[in-house]
Prior knowledge:
The structure is a single chain. The chain is globular, with a radius of gyration of 25 Å. Strands 9-8-10-11-7-12 form a six-stranded parallel sheet. The chain has a five-stranded parallel sheet with strand order 13-22-21-14-20. A five-stranded antiparallel sheet has the order 18-17-16-15-19. The longest helix has 20 residues, at 398-417. The chain is of the alpha/beta class. Helix 17 (363-372) runs antiparallel to helix 18. The two termini are 39 Å apart.
Amino acid sequence: xxxxxxxxxxxxxxxxxxxxxxxxxxxxxxxxxxxxxxxxxxxxxxxxxxxxxxxxxxxxxxxxxxxxxxxxxxxxxxxxxxxxxxxxxxxxxxxxxxxxxxxxxxxxxxxxxxxxxxxxxxxxxxxxxxxxxxxxxxxxxxxxxxxxxxxxxxxxxxxxxxxxxxxxxxxxxxxxxxxxxxxxxxxxxxxxxxxxxxxxxxxxxxxxxxxxxxxxxxxxxxxxxxxxxxxxxxxxxxxxxxxxxxxxxxxxxxxxxxxxxxxxxxxxxxxxxxxxxxxxxxxxxxxxxxxxxxxxxxxxxxxxxxxxxxxxxxxxxxxxxxxxxxxxxxxxxxxxxxxxxxxxxxxxxxxxxxxxxxxxxxxxxxxxxxxxxxxxxxxxxxxxxxxxxxxxxxxxxxxxxxxxxxxxxxxxxxxxxxxxxxxxxxxxxxxxxxxxxxxxxxxxxxxxxxxxxxxxxxxxxxxxxxxxxxxxxxxxxxxxxxxxxxxxxxxxxxxxxxxxxxxxxxxxxxxxxxxxxxxxxxxxxxxxxxxxxxxxxxxxxxxxxxxxxxxxxxxxxxxxxxxxxxxxxxxxxxxxxxxxxxxxxxxxxxxxxxxxx
Length: 597
């Protein structure tokens, strides 16, 4: 990260503007407003006063700013007093719209408070709304599936009941736990109960939407009877496209005043959805629509502010089912009744735990669970034992790492660069992926991609046969979406272009039409979300530095590990991995408290 003058940052300009506009000239309030703005840029939806009380400003600001004022924040009570004296702050008894909102110990930018309010209020209002379940019909459907070789696990059956009964349903689970199969079963049950229901499928990225579509189509072709097959949905879109994004428009086409026409909306990879987009989606739901969110609560949160999926699932280990819901699902779960304080939100949440993808001897599965559980002893056992699908390699220097990258370029990417069969080229890049935590720096994708490109493209031309690129922003005119992968192909007919895969073929696009893309020989772990590869190579730094340590989290490591289907190669050190395992992401939010209080 490059050093920046404290007073040149956007957060300082914001704080200075607000203080001048509302005549709040106290240095503490200016520094506090700086922190509120700063925290949103790091994914927090608000600033908790507890987290800054008695701390120096330079202890809170992780960026490498210069000329940070030597200021120490007072205790929480004094911070509250300073806030209440500032006319820019909206408190509980204030009906005016103001740029800063104080609520329950948290300080928000107004729009983030509003997003949280929309989300929390919708879920709380939906708790009391329910639908009758025809258990005889549910069991008949399950028996039909069993006759076709599909036997749902107990928790998958409970998820189907939850989606049939509740207005909202939450399904969380790691890779290979059968989330999409569960969703397909839910859709089948809903359509059996009411064959005129309109059901929509969406996901935060084009790649995630494409994978959801593929899985739903496979289920439809294999398990759906003719009566359901004609109405079983398989099309999936990005949330932006689903809501009707228009470039330059302030609102989506579908919004509070123009509701979506669907009875059921299902969102996959929900952990990647930020609170701003989720609030707009919720506002566009029609009255009494069912809302089903699916994801992995242990994965990385959204790039933008918020961690709603983690907040929504927070109480699953602290809370149990209500007595009413225990009666409904008791026939499925048997004597395995949870002896925990009941909470109505818990009734609508199902956490799938059994992984079907990995065998009993899979090191990937054991390592992922150990990281998720913060069990460093088990993590260490996996790294030093000889699991066939996990390889841990320690290295000493950045130069050594760059040499390793060049070797991977020779072994893998040079073969892609000489491949003239487009389908085979895409097959090769789907088999292996190199991921890293960073965009910039010695371990950043920009540096690593540059090293690989020099290896496969020594003449340094901009476009060359076999160049792998990733789209970095949605382009609805070209129907390309953030995360889409393409390969540049030189054709004998002179029609060279970047090929992007379709369901059964590919389409070619002139590279001059692409505005937002990057080489994709290595990608960030964030960008790898929603994707899976046969082999995943994870490049971690070989030491801990305060300038990047906040990025090295447990969720980042878990996400990287769970991208691998068959082989995981992990480069790093025991110290770095131990640091990540013991460094969970902590995003400040008010949603958790509102839903689970």
